Amino acid sequence: MGEPAKTILMSAEELRAMIREELARAAPSTPDEWMGPEEVAKMLNVKRGTIPALVSREALPCYRPGKSYTFRRPEVEAWILKRSTKPGAKPRGKLRMLRGE
Prior knowledge:
By secondary structure, the protein is mostly helical. Helices cover about 50% and strands about 5% of the residues.
């Protein structure tokens, strides 16, 4: 027989940090993780024209080699997780769509 299960208590933020660390460790950076604005817009269920506003106003992480935006999938997913799970946060404008409000 095995040992009985143990109960571990941690805050939601500690759990999110642990999940982020495990995801980063499990998914090393590869070229297919890069996305264009169209893919990010589809992922967020917003129009393509909303992406620059999310970058400037909402700190959506991006890289800008030249005139176009480029995004790393893990960074966008982490941004969504942070924005969608922040306790007491009231989404503005298009961000309501992220939470289904």
